[in-house]
Design brief:
Blueprint: E1 2-6, H1 10-21, E2 25-29, H2 33-40, H3 51-60, E3 64-67, H4 70-73, E4 79-82, H5 97-109, E5 114-118, H6 126-140, E6 147-151, H7 161-166, E7 171-174, H8 178-187, H9 189-193, E8 198-201, H10 203-234, H11 238-246, H12 267-280, H13 286-298, H14 301-310, E9 318-322, H15 337-347, E10 351-355, H16 360-367, E11 372-373, E12 386-389, H17 401-407, E13 412-415, H18 422-427, E14 431-433
Parallel strand pairs: 1-2, 1-4, 2-3, 4-5, 5-6, 7-8, 9-10, 9-12, 10-11, 12-13, 13-14
Helix pairs in contact: 1-3, 5-6, 10-12, 10-13, 12-13
Length: 445
């Protein structure tokens, strides 16, 4: 079986590599000549555990190829995936210009029956637009070639994407014909043999499923952050509340951790897009609007605690920041809470010394020389007035408190991910602020 995947961003590159791992011949296509050149050299443009090794393995076995030529890449293919970006437009809706541009190119160059599969996260109705774009080009060519369109949303978690793809909770595909259904089943045959469910449905339902899934997870995060803020007011512990409700099988324990808000390439964009879709259809998704508002407010909670402790004028103060990516196991800083916190500290006159295990280069692209970049977590602490933890990387979880004490000017920690135990921090003499839990204030500024 032979397929092409148009777009070598996060979704396209992971999907293409994992399909190749099952024995399918895959060509990943991108208009970015520099990116394709680097991929051919084995240089992977994103950080994802295990991806580089898997790419190298499948390239060496002649199953995975990279190209800038759509015309050549789709020859004799059974299916072509569209996996290009759908950035939010000014009104929050998904911008489909890249998706439709690819659809036009497919229609311009296809030479045999194809299933054109939307892998990009796209709003309801996109499949119809893709079909019209492909058909428009075929009509120009006076071609009677047949094709089908399908919707196959991705459910990959950054940092665990390979495992998510190879061992999916479910595979969702919207189809419009028996012919395309057979190709989809063959495409995912290796997964079906391992018992992973393939959920075939109509295309609009498949398109909506992806947005609904991300919106639900975002809702759980914002709900728990809202409850955490209430916990602080009434003297409750959000971790105890989380355990209490998470043990209920109807609720479950995942995505109930309080923190400084969600970020990344999916949740913020998809929540906005779903709200926009509802408004285009004269319906208001009030819960999701609240989810978005709560999340934006939550990104200011940690800096608010810093201002409460040190005051609004931070001129002459230096803050160590552990964690820059929006979550562990990725260098992705899109919509990262760290960016909001850093901006607030800088605006208040503070200096920021930051460290992240993998996102330092990405941070330099976004922040330039406005902050100080440290070579490790402890270097960031030297002569800092306090430490703020923004991303829950594993290496931050069991620090050497004695070393911290020697390096920090003041034993003050603002924990935006609740990775430390308040009682342990108290025993070690630290003033400790966290989210939705008791504050241990042992020092007055």
């Amino acid at each position: 079986m032979k397929i092409a995947i148009i777009g070598t961003g996060y979704v396209g590159l992971v999907s293409g590599t994992c399909f190749a791992e099952t024995g399918i011949t895959v060509t990943c296509v991108d208009i970015d000549e520099n990116k394709i050149s680097k991929l051919k050299q084995g240089i992977v443009p994103i950080f994802e555990p295990g991806l580089e090794t898997m790419i190298e393995n499948n390239v060496s076995k002649g199953r995975l190829f990279f190209s800038t030529d759509i015309r050549e890449s789709i020859i004799d293919c059974d299916a072509v995936f569209i996996a290009v970006g759908t950035p939010p437009d000014e009104d929050g809706s998904a911008d489909l210009k890249y998706v439709l541009a690819v659809a036009h190119e497919i229609g311009r160059y296809m030479q045999n029956y194809l299933v054109v599969i939307n892998k990009s996260t796209v709003p309801i109705g996109t499949a119809k637009k893709v079909k019209a774009a492909v058909q428009e080009e075929l009509t120009k060519r006076k071609s009677d070639l047949e094709f089908d369109v399908a919707s196959n949303p991705e459910f990959l978690k950054e940092g665990a994407a390979i495992n998510d793809f190879l061992k999916p909770d479910r595979i969702v595909v919207g189809v419009e014909s028996e012919r395309s259904e057979k190709i989809i089943q063959r495409l995912y045959k290796a997964f079906l043999l391992n018992g992973h469910p393939l959920l075939l449905m109509d295309i609009p339902s498949a398109e909506l499923t992806k947005y609904t899934a991300n919106a639900m997870l975002a809702t759980k995060i914002s709900f728990m952050n809202d409850i955490a803020n209430l916990c602080e007011i009434v003297g409750a512990d959000v971790n105890m509340v989380r355990k209490g409700i998470g043990s209920d099988s109807r609720i479950g324990s995942k995505f109930l951790y309080a923190g400084v808000g969600y970020g990344g390439s999916c949740f913020p964009k998809d929540v906005k897009a779903l709200i926009s879709t509802s408004e285009e259809n004269n319906y208001s998704l009030e819960i999701l609007k609240a989810v978005e508002n709560v999340n934006e407010r939550q990104k200011h909670v940690l800096s608010g605690k810093i201002f409460k402790h040190f005051g609004r004028n931070l001129k002459g103060k230096t803050f160590a920041l552990w964690g820059l990516s929006f979550k562990p196991q990725t260098d992705d800083m899109r919509e990262a809470p760290s960016l909001v916190i850093i901006e607030q500290l800088l605006e208040a006159g503070a200096s920021v010394k930051a460290y992240d295990p993998v996102a330092m280069e990405e941070a330099k692209h976004k922040l330039g020389s406005r902050i100080i970049y440290s070579k490790d977590m402890y270097e960031a602490l030297i002569d800092a007035d306090a430490l703020a933890i923004v991303t829950e990387w594993s290496e931050f979880r069991v620090p050497n408190y004695k070393v911290m004490e020697k390096l920090l000017l003041k034993k003050v920690v603002f924990d935006g991910r609740n990775i430390y135990d308040p009682h342990e921090m108290k025993e070690n003499g630290y003033t400790y602020y966290s989210i939705g839990r008791e504050t241990i204030n042992q020092e007055k500024p």
